[in-house]
Write the structure tokens for this entry.
Amino acid sequence: MDRELYGREAILGADGLAARLTGLAPYGSARVAYEHRDDPPVAVLTGGRGMGKTAVLKQLRRLYREVTPVALVDCEAVVPPADPGPGWTPVTGALPELAAQLTARVRAARPVPFPRLSLGLVAVASISWTREDETRAQRDLQALGPVLATVDTRGDAATGWVTKVLTKLAAGAFDAVAPLAGLVAEATVETVLEESFGRFQRRTADWYGSYPHAGGNGRIGLRQLAVDFERGGDLRRRAEDHLVLALVTDLVRAYEGLARGARRGRPVLLLDNAHTELGRRLVEPLLRRRAAGVRDRIAVFATSRTHDHEGLSHATRRRLPEVAHGSHWARGSEVTSGILAVELTALAPADVQAAFDRQDPAGRAPAGLARGVHRLTRGRPLGVALLAQATGEALARAAGAGTGRPDRAAGADLVPGALLDHTVELREDRPPVRVADELLARLVPGQQLDMLCVLAAAHGEESARLLATARLRDRSLEGDVALRVRDALRAQGWPVGPEFFVSDPLLRALLLHRLRFQDDDHPYYAVWRAVHETLRTAYAPGGRLPSVRHRLHQELVLGRTRDCVTHLRERFADAEVTDWLDSLRFIASASAPYLRTPGRPGPDPRRAVALGREATDTLPDGETGLAGLGERAVELQLRLRRLLHAVWLLSDPLVLPDDEVVEKMAHELRQLSGVHPSGNSVLWDAATHWPRDIRAWRPLSMPPGATGGAGGRTGTSGTRRGEGGSDA
């Protein structure tokens, strides 16, 4: 099921990029002024997985398929049939699919025929036919049925062709030196022209007279095309390029010689995952044709998962908002300057709220849930769509269960982390799927998730290699598994390191969530615990990567707070206060979520500690670190315990900020400012600016109040005075 799109008006709006390149308003046949009438660019939408590239192409198909010819092909999904012949390649597999879609009837216009493409594909398909194997020829022609039907509407036309083609071969006296593929192609083309092409259609064969070594003779050109295709290598690429241009020419000719207004706008080619080899094979011939000054009336929209793909080396680059009213594109001297590369940007908070409003029109979800989902997903459209749908379905189930609870109370337990464990129904013929599982399946398809989950716990490449050595030894037979995973992530467009091996916050949260719960062994979490114990040991004094900050962070991940609080207390008076605050922030950073048992709602245990409502007198001194401390040290230890839990809770992207905890954090920082010997103003500023960061859904800034694109980094990995080395 195609999803509703938000934040893509720059492309899909009434005067957006698509309307200006097609000359047609969405959902209708109203004309729109062309932005580039004679020489349109190829628009390539760039962005990583889950950024909505495919969704935009599907929306374009939905908007225009009734008013102009439209075709959509996923260049990663073109796979060979069960028994492909020598004439099948990804290019010859994609072209018939494109033609079949483009020939669909649209308003006030006849279907587009593809005679040139049909002749070329038949010539190539025939290269392995023999009289001894009529079945092969029959199967290949039937596979080309959809594109052949654009010329000959008789459903059984191919049946008679095979016999006649092979009869011609048997009766002919051929030069033994001539390549057999060319002879078969020539006999096939002659038969097809005689049997299926009308008098005027037969002239389309002359188009192949421009093929190398054809000397202006179209039939010789088709024969040479088949010979080149069979030989492979660069010659096959040349033949495939000519087949691509055959489709383009057929499509262009459908717009020529018609009465004014017979066809409106431009036909639309949509190529998903065009960064692949097949994508380049389909786009580059068109780019070269346009660069040579041959114009056409085709609007091409493609997608690329990588922003720095070499095929985009000379493209005009724009971010999505910049093309809302004009692309400001101009062709340069390089072939690839014919590309307008548009980077899809993340959804804004208002877009996320609109998605939630659609799923929850009664407004029963917690008021901050949409912003919390925006913080977790960073506005990645796929994550927003699935989490919004999970919210709507969860609220509908609660209402249908007849709990008797008020509407808003029914959604009180919904937080981003809880939504990951809810299910959504994506298709009627498929059982509901868990949100976290579906997101991982679509964000990192084909990856070995068990291995990736382990490495997601690493801070940098060095700790990832350590985890690979300690926990993935059986996966490292062919080399360093951490480096192979790093390269695989980069190939998929995911950022890697240096602060976190898996740098994208949503992907890292999903992988750590799976690491925690994949074995369903509550309360032991054996795999989770083993991974983090490995890191804690490595960061300890004498370990391979000694670092106090990283070790304490791992202690907190494992739920052990005593050493963290004690370290903060012992360094409180002696450390430079900005470094001390940065250590607090790092130890309790967003990569240390408190993962509760799925399906068990209720108050977060950290909240009671942060608000001072924990019954500390019932806790053993070994857990609080109070044993042997004087009165003032006990007071400071408890205050820092409250502060640590507050920062930990408020930095967690899987929960929603709590105003009472925010106020308590500010209170504790102000109290600390009064007792610190030299850094009282910095602590006082933190009491002002950190609540402001939290309420603005930003990471805590360092130094407090610092401005930046993201409000400061969420953690650092550099060496700090007296705190050990860094994790590379």
Notes: The first strand starts at residue 42 and ends at 46.
